[in-house]
Amino acid sequence: MSLPVKDPKFPEGPSALVLAQTGLKAFARMAASWDLSVDQQRLLLGELPKTSYYGLLKGTGRTVSRDTLERLSLLVGIWANLEILLPNPEAAAQWMTRPHPAHAFGGQAPLAFMLTGTVAALVDVRRHLETWRLGW
Question: How far apart are CA 48 and CA 102, in angstroms?
Answer without folding.
Answer: 29
